[in-house]
Specification:
The protein has nine helices and seven strands, in the order H-H-H-E-E-H-E-H-E-H-E-H-E-E-H-H. It is α/β, with parallel strands linked by helices. Strands 1-7-6-2-5-3-4 form a seven-stranded mixed β-sheet, sandwiched between helices. Strand 3, helix 5 and strand 4 form a beta-alpha-beta unit.
Length: 245
């Protein structure tokens, strides 16, 4: 329980002390939104590193060289834990916004940080609002901000390696032609969710797979992208299982 208490205390203290910083970042955003997003991400990812350190995460990162350096991308990871966001955020190169379910936007103070970092809150039950989120993500991609979306829609709590994908998750790539970078995440659920409310030190492997090009694909060709992304993640996920034992 000590790790849980440590992370909980640190998170509460960070959120409280960061309120004045949020106000300053909000003012900066009015005149320099990109600068505000960059500095906000730098602050939050430092906090995430501390959360992971307190939790005792033993991290192995593979495939960073696969991430294109000259363009924004759509990151597509599997999803098993809240630590998926915490860990991936601080290892992502460059500006990145996450697509999160709308319920995430109810957490006070943290939701303000998310907004400053260009995170988008998605209501899957409201098609009109969902389309607005997709279009906003497309704008961010064109401006040079990468986007991360979890195509399973929610955390995988079952025994299967990966849940079915929501095809709408790939609309951002279809509309912008940006590359898709599949991400395989292993063992994050064993940090917290497997023995809630305890937090235990665990090995975690995150692999960035080869990017999948989408520019110039026909509609028929793009229909196969979801299956290709899922296959890439599954292959890496199963390959890395041995590394977290």
């Amino acid at each position: 329980m000590l790790r849980f208490i440590g992370d909980a205390l640190f998170t509460i203290i960070f959120l409280i002390l960061s309120i004045p910083v949020i106000a300053i970042e909000g003012l900066i955003r009015l005149v320099a939104p990109k600068a505000s997003a960059k500095s906000s991400q730098a602050i939050v990812t430092r906090a995430f590193r501390i959360v992971a350190w307190i939790a005792g995460v033993k991290l192995t990162v593979k495939g960073l060289e696969n991430i294109p350096k000259d363009t924004a991308v759509l990151y597509v990871p599997n999803h098993r834990s809240i630590f998926d966001i915490i860990i991936t955020y601080y290892i992502m190169p460059g500006q990145t916004g996450y697509v999160a379910k709308k319920e995430t936007g109810r957490f006070p103070v943290f939701n303000l940080w998310m907004a400053l970092m260009n995170c988008q809150f998605l209501d899957r039950k409201d098609l009109r609002k969902g389309l607005k989120v997709i279009l906003r993500c497309c704008e961010l991609i064109k401006e040079g901000t990468s986007i991360t979306i979890f195509p399973e829609g929610t955390r995988n709590k079952g025994s299967e390696d990966i849940q079915p994908f929501h095809d709408g998750s790939f609309k951002i790539a279809e509309k912008t032609g940006c590359p898709i970078v599949p991400i395989a995440i292993n063992n994050t659920d064993q940090i917290f969710e497997a023995q809630f409310p305890k937090i235990k030190s665990r090995k975690v492997v995150i692999e960035f797979c080869q990017p999948i090009k989408t520019e110039g694909l026909s509609r028929a060709e793009f229909k196969e992208v979801s299956n290709k992304v899922k296959a890439e993640i599954l292959e890496a996920y199963r390959r890395n299982k041995e590394l977290v034992k």
